[in-house]
From TrEMBL:
<dbReference type="InterPro" id="IPR029036">
    <property type="entry name" value="P5CR_dimer"/>
</dbReference>
<dbReference type="GO" id="GO:0055129">
    <property type="term" value="P:L-proline biosynthetic process"/>
</dbReference>
<keyword id="KW-0028">Amino-acid biosynthesis</keyword>
<feature type="domain" description="Pyrroline-5-carboxylate reductase catalytic N-terminal">
    <location>
        <begin position="6"/>
        <end position="99"/>
    </location>
</feature>
<protein>
    <recommendedName>
        <fullName>Pyrroline-5-carboxylate reductase</fullName>
        <ecNumber>1.5.1.2</ecNumber>
    </recommendedName>
</protein>
<dbReference type="Pfam" id="PF03807">
    <property type="entry name" value="F420_oxidored"/>
</dbReference>
<dbReference type="Pfam" id="PF14748">
    <property type="entry name" value="P5CR_dimer"/>
</dbReference>
<feature type="binding site">
    <location>
        <begin position="70"/>
        <end position="73"/>
    </location>
    <ligand>
        <name>NADP(+)</name>
    </ligand>
</feature>
<comment type="similarity">
    <text>Belongs to the pyrroline-5-carboxylate reductase family.</text>
</comment>
<dbReference type="InterPro" id="IPR028939">
    <property type="entry name" value="P5C_Rdtase_cat_N"/>
</dbReference>
<feature type="binding site">
    <location>
        <begin position="9"/>
        <end position="14"/>
    </location>
    <ligand>
        <name>NADP(+)</name>
    </ligand>
</feature>
<feature type="domain" description="Pyrroline-5-carboxylate reductase dimerisation">
    <location>
        <begin position="162"/>
        <end position="263"/>
    </location>
</feature>
<keyword id="KW-0521">NADP</keyword>
<dbReference type="GO" id="GO:0004735">
    <property type="term" value="F:pyrroline-5-carboxylate reductase activity"/>
</dbReference>
<keyword id="KW-0641">Proline biosynthesis</keyword>
<keyword id="KW-0560">Oxidoreductase</keyword>
<dbReference type="GO" id="GO:0005737">
    <property type="term" value="C:cytoplasm"/>
</dbReference>
Length: 265
């Protein structure tokens, strides 16, 4: 990967998060990364870190091997039309971060048959803690490995079937917002029972982090970890039961399903 050029077209919030994550990978040279944005003043910090910045998408593609399209779905066709003549069959891999566009639809926009991927990271890429789901078309094992390497640089990545990509968007990308809302509610509860906002945030943030790491390291079902905390007639079980009476789990599930139904449309 050291000699592979990577360009991120559309360096908005998500694109910039990925760029910041890649900066921390010692196997990637910042000089081999190019990012594009119309307003360059918003990404000068990436230039200071050694990344090439430009508003010229064609030039960025010409000097790269792996193209990450970090633009809105309605802009994908426009961008591909702009860069199509520079995309070479033996040189390029295209990775779309756009929701709702299949690899087949993207492939049909191109002049040459090249490996096309879809990837869905989340904004935790900025601190190298993203979960990214990936699928591909026309790719060989070595190309899959290269794309996975990029996204493993910003967290963890999974190869999944393409029909699950919309679901992955909801659970991983939208899901981080759901988690933030849960954390905010816990902080508000902490304030109501006596903590100042900063102390409540510190306690809640570490509690959520610890819970997540326990699931990853112990590989247990959440309920088995809950059982370790709940005791007969204890304060934990009454709190959990009150949340369920108020629709906590069902509200969260309904929110996920509603988001999924929106994306399917």
């Amino acid at each position: 990967m050291k000699n592979r050029g990577i360009c991120i077209i559309g360096c908005g919030n998500l694109g910039k998060s990925i760029a910041n994550g890649l900066l921390n990978n010692k196997e990637l040279s910042p000089s081999n990364i190019t990012v594009t944005r119309r307003t360059l003043s918003k990404i000068t910090d990436l230039k200071d870190a050694g990344i090439n910045i430009t508003s010229d998408n064609v030039m960025a593609v010409r000097n790269s091997n792996i193209i990450l399209l970090a633009v809105k779905p309605y802009n994908v066709s426009k961008i591909i039309n702009e860069i199509r003549s520079e995309i070479k069959a033996e040189q390029h891999i295209l990775v779309s971060l756009a929701t709702g566009l299949s690899t087949s639809e993207i492939s049909e926009m191109l002049e040459h048959k090249i490996p096309v991927f879809r990837a869905m990271p989340n904004i935790a890429a900025n601190i190298r803690e993203s979960i990214t789901c990936i699928c591909d078309k026309n790719a060989i094992a070595e190309e899959v490995k290269m794309v996975k390497f990029i996204f493993d640089s910003i967290g963890e990545s999974l190869i999944i079937n393409e029909e699950l990509m919309e679901a992955a968007t909801i659970l991983g990308a939208c899901g981080i917002a759901f988690v933030f809302r849960f954390i905010r509610a816990m902080i508000q509860g902490g304030i109501q029972i006596g903590f100042d906002a900063n102390t409540a945030k510190q306690i809640v943030s570490q509690t959520v982090k610890g819970a997540a790491e326990m699931l990853q390291k112990n590989n247990n079902h959440p309920e088995s970890e809950i059982d370790k905390v709940t005791t007969p007639k204890g304060c934990t079980i009454v709190g959990l039961n009150e949340m369920e009476h108020r629709g906590f789990s069902s509200a969260l599930i309904r929110g996920i399903v509603t988001s999924f139904e929106k994306i399917e449309k």
